[in-house]
Design a protein that fits this description.
single chain, binds 4'-deoxy-4'-aminopyridoxal-5'-phosphate, Aspartate Aminotransferase, domain 2, Aspartate Aminotransferase, domain 1, alpha/beta
């Protein structure tokens, strides 16, 4: 029998929970500025497909629970990508699926591996599952397959890899992803997080579909929050081996995707023209912004996604922190990436034409002027 002294006087979270620093989203407001451009959360400047908006408004019979299996949506995704809907599961954003993978496949004593600048939710999900985060160093803001493989131990259960990665915008070619998979023990789950896959225009890139189709230990995560412009509705999906899908189906909420989310996401994935327009916009303005920012003397990490990681000088008056304050005053909200260990950079979403011009004009003033310390 345990003594009364060893019983806490109040409920205490499991070890690991209080080690979590809650995710801090990109800022949404810039006080005072007449016009605000939110470039802090990699949202789609074109918004969602009008067909998705119509489907959202058409969702009625709100007294009924949604289809807990999101059948219509899984079928639409299956049709778009040529995948078996039985091997798909939808989630409340891909964030939820990341968390469920950690919960289902890792626990106390297990390790979850990801790279140095990997998406922050991997750490949160790992700690929430009671598992131990293990971080592999990157090389010049690129995930490093050798470093990841070197960090694998008998306790490794899951490897999360965002490809392209947020906040760096860099990617690994398919050969490297295959090399990673081949180097992993068969009991280690490789979770390829392809939240930004649609934006990538590189012949040597593969989001994960091919690898999932041929391996027992690979899943691919996708989202409707980025190219489909439906971040507010929280819909993500995963393609994986039947056994992994089965495990996630057991631990997920029974009705984790809302009826409005199912309806809007189904219409969104069927609107290929809208997706193409978003990709074309991103291509055009991504390269324009990169050229303009480099011309201003800033360093830009080459990005294949819908955002840029911009590195600021260390000299007083020109730092990322001062740039952030300067831009906020002009209503331009960028993303500080201190929490990723990159305090000298800001991340910006490729915005509307107007936002992109406003950003370059503001940064030109910032880089050209003197702003004290
Ligand atoms: N993975 C990556 C790499 C991301 O950047 C994000 C969004 N910031 C997500 C997953 C989660 O997206 P959501 O939960 O909106 O689907």
């Amino acid at each position: 029998m345990s003594s009364a002294a060893s019983v806490p006087s109040r409920p205490v979270p499991r070890p690991g929970v209080l080690a979590i620093e809650a995710y801090v989203p990109g800022k949404a407001h810039a006080g005072g500025a007449a016009k605000v451009y939110k470039l802090s959360a990699n949202e789609n400047p074109l918004g969602p497909s009008p067909k998705a908006v119509a489907a959202f408004h058409g969702a009625d019979a709100l007294e009924f629970y949604p289809d807990g299996s999101a059948t219509k949506l899984r079928e639409a995704i299956g049709k778009t990508y040529g995948l078996d809907p039985a091997r798909l599961v939808c989630g409340t954003g891909s964030d939820e699926l990341i968390t469920l993978l950690a919960l289902a496949f890792a626990g106390p004593g297990d390790e979850v591996l990801y790279s140095q600048y990997g998406f922050l939710v991997y750490r949160i999900a790992t700690l929430a599952a009671g598992a131990t985060p293990v971080i592999a160093p990157e090389r010049d803001y690129h995930s490093d397959v050798d470093a990841l493989l070197a960090a694998v131990t008998p306790a490794t259960r899951v490897v999360f890899l965002a490809n392209p990665n947020n906040p760096t915008g860099t990617y690994l070619p398919f050969d490297e992803i295959k090399r990673l998979q081949q180097g992993l023990p068969p009991n280690v789950l490789l979770a390829l997080d392809a939240a930004y896959a649609e934006y990538v225009r590189r012949n040597d890139y593969e989001a994960g579909i091919e690898l999932v189709a041929t391996c027992q230990n690979v899943v691919m995560l996708r989202t409707f929050s980025k190219i489909h412009g439906l971040a507010a509705l929280r819909v993500g999906w995963m393609y994986g081996p039947a056994e992994v899908i089965d495990a996630v189906n057991r631990v997920r909420g029974a009705f984790n995707v809302s009826a409005a989310g199912i309806a809007a996401a189904t219409a969104a994935i069927e609107d290929a023209a809208h997706v193409e327009a978003a990709v074309a916009h991103n291509e055009r303005w991504g390269s324009w912004l990169t050229t303009e920012l480099i011309a201003l003397g800033l360093k830009v990490t080459p990005s294949v996604a819908n955002f840029l990681l911009v590195h600021f000088p260390l000299e007083p008056g020109k730092t990322s922190k001062e740039a952030d304050a300067f831009l906020m005053e002009r209503g331009l909200i960028l993303r500080r990436v201190d929490s990723y260990g990159i305090p000298t950079a800001l991340r910006l979403t490729i915005g509307t034409e107007e936002a992109n011009h406003a950003l370059v004009a503001a940064l030109r003033d910032f880089m050209g002027g003197s702003h004290g310390t």
